[in-house]
Write a structure and sequence with these properties.
Elements lengths: L8 E2 L5 E2 L3 E3 L15 H12 L4 E3 L3 E2 L11 E2 L6 H11 L5 E7 L14 E2 L8 H4 L6 E2 L2 H21 L3 E6 L4 H6 L14 H4 L1 H14 L5 E6 L10 H14 L3 E5 L15 H6 L4 H8 L6 E4 L5 H10 L4 E4 L1 H5 L3 H6 L16 H4 L2 H16 L10 H23 L1
Parallel strand pairs: 3-4, 3-14, 4-7, 5-6, 5-7, 7-10, 8-9, 10-11, 11-12, 12-13, 13-14
Antiparallel strand pairs: 1-2
Helix pairs in contact: 1-2, 1-15, 4-7, 15-16
């Protein structure tokens, strides 16, 4: 039987997603400078839930207030924001939608402006010195510190479940801490957490086990995983497939496939071949390899732009879910219109400032979309035709002010 976008997707844990469209995580940076939940997140996720998407995955929620990835990330360590967390989850559950909290630790991708220091599997800096100057040289984690971070993932997952979120996702991609443990480029440890592929995946398996122990067997647990880092000497497809098989054996409910890091941002479309763009999904070839090895449900994110491309990916069996991110910023109700036949494609287009160096940086487009997320969160419509340079300058001003306030809070 041909799979279509409107069909439900049953998960191994017993939960069911109402359709095959998922909102992939984007870092909203809509918390307070003190990393608390705000009503803006409630408003944003209510808008998406009403837009018809079956699964909403939140942006980075950090498990440790000492390790922040972006200004105004939410940190979930305790119940200080329980009332707003419950409102956020309730808004995301409207119309039988699933809302899963993405849990993350940045590792060495912790900016100097926001953090007093950084930790990582090993004391390995960024290979690009221009990028590295914005980040601390990381300190290698001790084994007791690793155990504490594993515990924190489990604690945050339990808090999310208790607040009404219907699942969690481990951020194991894009060069953050879980991804750093998996990569031989950033993990040069010689203990049980490094030295070979089996040891490098020990951390992510312990994180999964800690979460499962706290949330039970009937609660969806997912992971966002790199197909590869696209860096010489880094995490490659062969090892990624081994991680997928290990996670499937442990009982993972959904694997979202992505790729790249801050230094090689394939998740943003940088360096993607034209033939891949025409097929739309950046990581579909890798997903086809995964499907030959495991039966765990898959979500492929990155590059989907037309209804035809989405249906083709589902019909081929390479993916079970179509992951959308930027299209749902420009058009929050796109899923509903795709499902009822009123939309055949989306309005996403390249954002340009006219400054080549800026236009080649993936973070420029992130800034543009961050501005649109803020508009939706304030109850305003997105501006799909907003200029790239003006948006970048606005976001730079806001981020600078937030960093200043966060710095004062941490002084």
């Amino acid at each position: 039987m041909t799979v279509t976008l409107d069909q439900p997707l049953p998960l191994p844990c017993g939960a069911t997603l109402k359709n095959r469209l998922g909102k992939s995580a984007m870092s909203e940076t809509l918390g307070t400078p003190g990393n608390r939940v705000t009503p803006r997140l409630v408003r944003l996720y209510r808008e998406w839930a009403r837009g018809g998407t079956g699964l909403l995955v939140t942006g980075n929620v950090m498990v440790d207030r000492r390790a922040i990835g972006e200004p105004c990330n939410v940190v979930l360590e305790n119940n200080r924001d329980k009332r707003l967390l419950e409102r956020w989850a309730l808004a995301g559950r409207e119309q039988n939608t699933h809302i899963w909290m993405q849990l993350n630790h940045p590792g060495k991708q912790a900016p100097k402006a926001l953090n007093r220091g950084a930790v990582a599997p090993s004391a390995v800096p960024f290979s690009d010195p221009k990028l590295g100057r914005f980040f601390h040289l990381p300190r290698a984690l001790t084994q007791p510190e690793i155990a504490d971070i594993v515990r924190r993932f489990g604690e945050s997952a339990a808090l999310a479940r208790d607040a009404g979120f219907t699942g969690v996702q481990i951020h194991g991609a894009h060069g953050y801490l879980v991804s750093q443990f998996l990569s031989p480029l950033s993990n040069q440890r010689e203990d049980e957490y490094g030295g070979n592929a089996e040891n490098r995946r020990r951390f992510v398996l312990e994180v999964y086990d800690a979460i499962r122990a706290r949330v039970g067997d009937d609660f969806p647990v997912s992971i966002k995983l790199n197909s590869a880092d696209f860096q010489q000497g880094g995490f490659e497809e062969g090892e990624s497939l081994q991680v997928v098989e290990a996670l499937a054996r442990q009982g993972m409910d959904l694997i979202e496939i992505s790729g790249g890091t801050y230094e090689s941002p394939r998740m943003a479309g940088q360096g993607v071949k034209e033939s891949t763009r025409r097929r739309e999904a950046y990581f579909l070839d890798y997903a086809e390899q995964v499907r030959q090895r495991v039966t765990v449900p898959l979500m492929v994110t990155g590059g989907f732009r037309t209804l035809e491309g989405m249906n083709s990916a589902l019909a081929d069996g390479a993916t079970d879910m179509v992951g959308l991110a930027r299209p749902l910023v420009v058009e929050p109700d796109l899923s509903r219109r795709l499902l009822d036949g009123r939309a055949r494609d989306c309005r996403v287009k390249p954002i340009r400032t006219g400054v080549r160096m800026v236009d080649e940086a993936a973070m420029m487009e992130v800034s543009w979309y961050t501005l649109q997320l803020g508009r939706i969160a304030r109850g305003k419509a997105p501006l799909p035709d907003a200029g790239g340079l003006s948006s970048l300058l606005k976001v730079a001003g806001v981020v600078g002010w937030r960093r200043l306030r966060m710095g004062r809070l941490r002084a």
